[in-house]
User: What shape does this take?
Amino acid sequence: MAAACARTVCKVGCNILQSPASRRTGTVSYLLGNVSAHGSRRAYGTGGTGGPGLRSKLLSSLRAGGGRVLGCAVLLGGGLGLYNTVKFSFQQHLAEEEQQVSRGGGVKLTLYQYKTCPFCSKVRAFLDYQGLPYEIVEVNPVMRQEIKWSAYRKVPILMVDGEVQLNDSSVIISSLKTFLINKDKSMSEILRCYPELKSVNDSGKKVTEYSNKYWLMLSEAETTAVYPEKGMQKEEMKWRQWADDWLVHLISPNVYRTAGEALASFDYIVREGKFSTFEGFFAKYVGAAAMFLISKRLKSRHNLQDDVRQDLYKAVDDWVAAIGKKRKFMGGDQPNLADLAVFGVLRVMEGLQAFDDMMENTKVKHWYRRVERASLNHEGRD
Assistant: This one.
């Protein structure tokens, strides 16, 4: 509306300039005379520096200039008004865009995590790729005071707008991806599609699982848009589950394979995690020794070879073979949720001997670097 008013003022100024009446001094004299008669006492006080002499000189000069003076004044005022309107609109548009980006399309996300946890790394890979801003709360793995408010005592936990709590890395990723595509449902409505299943395992320990956690809750048309080729959805779900059920269990036996590697791993964990001085010292030396012994049991539990590196190499090469030579990613030209899950799991080994050995002895390097760039550059934002 302001822009329309400014354009109207500009048109009036042009009409005054082009009008034959603007060449007659009477019209302007009449207008200025009215202004002088009604407004001079307020505009020019008799005791001020302007005085009647200055007023008469100003009126005389304006009368001499004719209507062109008034036309120029009106035109200038309209132009300035239009400029300020456009400037304000542009600034408002930038502010709205910045607000939308800063809140991730309208939601505030807070991730409670251990930085070196592969499941937390999966969630960060997804959030970074999608360009969703989020806050990180690093949880102390000993006391876990940061999540004492939660009945669910594992990480990752993702809070949406401080109200909706998402648990389990795969549920977090599936529900958020659904939310980004399906604009008609709230996060609470989407979360109801992933119900909790509580049970007791063979060891008598209570466990919580989630139904449908590898599914996106989309309409038929939305599903076709996300998975345009036959078999893409099934393939993505299969390898997402593979990352959770198999690949993640190869990490600990490999990073704690020897006493030296276990110590290096815990040095990294303490450095990147949230520990007090005493907790850090205790974790580094006692934790490293404990995990070196535990890794031997994990090797037996998961039927791994004596040289656990060979299991890691085979798993990674199986993944690369599933992508094939004609695709950059399992998702084609862009990473899909399986790409991001596998990348997130493998990333926690960076800086350790197991990661260097994997990059040197498998074919995963080029794929890994492509996903890394896509995540860092937020290529899934659009």
Notes: The CA atoms of residues 219 and 225 lie 10 Å apart. DSSP finds 16 helices and six strands in the chain.
